[in-house]
Write a structure and sequence with these properties.
Elements (H helix, E strand, L loop, with lengths): L4 E2 L10 H13 L9 H21 L6 E5 L2 H15 L3 E5 L5 H13 L3 E5 L11 H14 L4 E5 L14 H9 L5 E6 L12 E2 L4 E2 L2 E5 L10 E5 L22 H37 L4 E4 L9 E6 L6 H10 L2 E2 L15 H5 L4 H4 L3 E4 L6 H18 L3
Parallel strand pairs: 1-13, 3-4, 3-5, 5-6, 6-9
Antiparallel strand pairs: 2-10, 7-8, 9-10, 11-12, 12-14
The structure holds pyridoxal-5'-phosphate.
Pyridoxal-5'-phosphate (PLP) binds next to α3.
Length: 395
Amino acid sequence: MVNHTYLDYGASSPIGEDVINTMVDVAKNYYGNPSSKHNDGVEAHDIIAHARKTIMDYIGGNEDDNLIFTSGATESNSIAIQGFCRAYNKVRIFYTPLEHEDIIQAVKYCTDHMSGVSSCEIPVDEGTGYVDIDGFDNLLFNARLKHPGEVFLIIIQLANSEIGTIQLSEILYDVIREYDDDDICIMSDITQYLPYYRFKAFNPDMRMCIDIVTASAQKFGGLKGTGFLYVNSGWDIDPVIFGEQGVRGGTENVIGIAAMETAIKHLDKTMEVKQKKLLFIYNYLKKKLSKIEGVEIIGDPFDRLINNLSFVCNTCDLSAQQIVELCNESGVSISAGSACHNYSSEPSRTLLAIGLSPEKANKVIRVTWGEYTTIDDICTFLDVYKEILAIHSKK
Ligand SMILES: Cc1ncc(COP(=O)(O)O)c(C=O)c1O
């Protein structure tokens, strides 16, 4: 695309040359069905086994744990939540209102349609969306007191796509640990976190173990329609898509899985250099935005994803959607909240949950950047944005 500035990495990231080379190689040379017993099938099967090992090593899984390849985080979340509720008799789900829509809907479905399943929302702080530690503690305490014998599924995303809030701090984990017995399973959607930080399912420094992990490859340089679901060996997930392959039936997407492995290796190789660059862009953009009259950062301005800034201009009456369209006309891609929210005219649930009015929530735009972003891209956006505000702001 000519004269195009892409600042929507939170929705999807570009695919690197190394991933494209893997795709082409596997598509050309490894077309056997991985379930077939002849050499072509075995070769395809080996590609999957190799990718599984690479990804497991990267996220710190053990040999006995389960890594299921899926079509993305949406499917991973759906399988995890439904599969968990099918596997255990009495399940209470705790979830934050900041979770991705697929989680909210899966929780609602299981609560409404499956016997023995109940759910409650974890309170979050106004303004930032961090879990309200005391409120969460009370919730767990009362649930344990009133409903002994229930298995708890605690769902807290690691990073939020719209406001960049990073959760699961040590203090939050301390609260969970107070109640820790064999009946508490922690699940985290790490889709927005994985591309920008190193992640281990078991973090020995924090003595923190995330039992179920979900992610989407399109956010870290892999292909759309691929992702994974990690499940610690201590927990069961019943199948949701039936077939011969266990929890998730159907012939595996060999090309997508191999591409995801290459994308993970690329993350491993480039992470620290990339982090420095993204942080530099973050500080630069934040400083420039602070000089524009009426601009207000949404979420925690200091401690958030290093590739994410969401903001409103309080002197401008345009909706986020209108600003996105005007930017697009000038060749700049940004988003109004999360990409998944762009289908809806309702204000974002996340933004309402952190205390924004519906009017303000509908004005929030999100700029997200990544590996291939340059300072020139940011300057182009700033020029376009300032021009829009100059025309449409109240004097
Ligand atoms: C936190 C989070 N979870 C899940 C998803 C869904 O990912 P996919 O559409 O690739 O399945 C997204 C996509 O934006 C996301 O940001």
